[in-house]
Records
---
Amino acid sequence: MLILVQVERKKQKRLFAAKLRGWLDKKIKGFELWLVRTWNHFVRYVLQLNWYYSIHSILKTLLLAIQMFYTSFEKIFERNRNRTKKLRMEKRQLNSLNHLSQMADHKVDTALSPAQKKKLRHKKLEEKH
C-alpha cells in the first residue's frame, strides 16, 4: 500500500480506484467544510450568547441599584414633604393666633374708660362747631 502511494505521488496521478477515491475525497472535504462552519457558528453563538448574558446581568444589577436609590430618595422626599406640611400648619396656627391675640390685647390695653370716651366725644363735637 505504501509503495502504491509513493508511486502515485511521483506520477501525481491516482492509479488505483481513482473515481472512488475522488468521490470519497469530495465527501470528506464536504464533511470537513460542514464541520468547520458548524464549529465556527457554534463558537460564535456561544460567545455572543455569553456576552449578552454578561451585559444583561450587569444591566440588571445597575437597574436594581438605581431602583434602590430611587426608593430611598422617594422615602426621604416624602418624609420631608410631610414635615414641611406640619411646619406650615404650625406656622399658620402660630401666626393667626399671635396676630389675633395681639390685636385683642392691644384693643384691651388702649381701650378708653367711659369717662374718657365721653370727654373725647365732647372735644370732637366742639371742634366741629
---
Amino acid sequence: MGRPTTLLEGLCGHAVSLGAQSIEVNYKDGREWVFANKGSMGIGIANYKSSSADGKELRGNLYAAAKKPVRSVIGGKVYILKVTVLDSFGEDAFAVGIELAPQLDPSMAPSFTPKQGQYLAFIYAVGLDFDVDGFQVAMHDALFMRGFERVANLAGDSR
C-alpha cells in the first residue's frame, strides 16, 4: 500500500487528464485559484478559500514540492512535479511543471549510496539464509554452521 495522494497530486492528475502539461496556482480575493495550462491556454479547474483546510493543504504541498520535486503516479505513469515559487503583486504564486519521469535503463546496474553498498556487501558475504526470529532457514553451508552451533551449545540448556 502506497502513501495517500496529496491535493496537489490530485489536481495534477486532473490537469493531465485534460491534456495539460502544467498548472498554476494564484492567490486572489482570499482564494487559491488553480489553472491547468495546455499550450498557451489556461483552464480554471479549482479554487479554494485560502483559510480553508484544502487551501492550507494545497499551499503546504506547493511549498514542500518547491523544496523537493515530488514523484507521483498519475494514470499508471510516473511523473515528476516541479514547483517554482513566483512573486505576483506581493503574493506567492506557483508554477507546477508536470513531467514524465525518465525511464530506467535496464542494462545499467542501479547506483547505491555507500551505506547501501556496505549493507548489500554484508548480506551477500554472510548469505541470504539464516536464523530469523528462531525459525531455522536453510543455509548454504550447513556443515560450517553446525560447527558454530556446537560451540554455542556447549553452555547447554538447563532443563
---
Amino acid sequence: MARLAAIALVVGVTAPSAAHASHVETILAIETASVALSATSAIAAIITGLGSSRAVAAGQLRHTWFIAAYIVSGVNLALGVASIALAVEYVPQLDPLFAVGAAHALLAGWNVVVPSVGFALGEAAVTPVALQGIDAAGRRWVGAGVRLAGF
C-alpha cells in the first residue's frame, strides 16, 4: 500500500495536470478506505474470536458470539484472499501485502474453528433416549423416545 501511495504521489508530482491530480486523489482515497476496512475487520475478528473463545472455555454456549464470528470470518477471508492475490499479481516483493493477507486468513480461521467447536460441544436440539419404567399393573416396559432440549 505504501509503495502504491508513493508511486501515486510521484505520478502526481511529475505530471501535475488536473486529470492526474484527480486520479491520484482517487487512488489515495481508495487506499485509505481499504486500510480502514482492513483494520476494522481485523479488530472485529479479534473481538469476536476472544468472545467466542471465552464462551467456549466457560461452557457458555452463546450462539450470538458464534454467528458474529462466522460473519466476521467471511469478511476476513475475503480480504485475506484479495490481499494475497494482489500481492502475488502486482507487488514484486511479497512482504507487506502478503503478510496482511496471511493475517486476515489466520483471523478468519480462528473465527471458524472456535465457533465450530462451540457448536459441537453444545447439546443437540433433538436427542434420542432409551426409556424404561413400570406401568400401573406393575409390568416393566422399555422403549425409545426423543428428548427436546430446553423443554
---
Amino acid sequence: MTLVSSMRDKNLIRTGRNNSFQVYVKKKGKYVKLGKPTTRNNALDLGSRYVDSNPSAVFKIVKSNERPVFNKNAIDDFFAFNLNKFRAGRIMNKREQKFTEKEIYRIDTKGEKEGISIKGIQKRRVKKIFDL
C-alpha cells in the first residue's frame, strides 16, 4: 500500500447498501463506467462534471447493489449549480435515469473544445450558418 492510496482511502467513507448509484458516460455510442458506486448526489456531481468538461453529452446513473463509497472531499454540488445546463431524460425503468447536456451548452469549456475533432468543428460551423 503506497502513501497516496492510503491517503485516498482515508477520505472515503462507506455508507449503507440501499442507496448507491453507478455513473455511466456515453463515449462513441457506448456507455462506459465512471468511478465507484456512490451516493445519488455524488453520482450526479461526478457525471455532470465529467460531461461538462469533455465532449460527451450524455450520462446516466444506475442503481447499484454494491455499498456506496462517499468521498468527503468531493462535496461541491456541481450538479445543483449547473442544473440549467442539463435536461433529464425519460426514466425507462426505476433503476436508471439519463441526463443530457443541452445543445447550447455542449461546447463551452476548454476540455470540450480540445476533445472535438476538426471535422466536428467544421460541421458545427456549417450547421450554425444554415441554421439546421
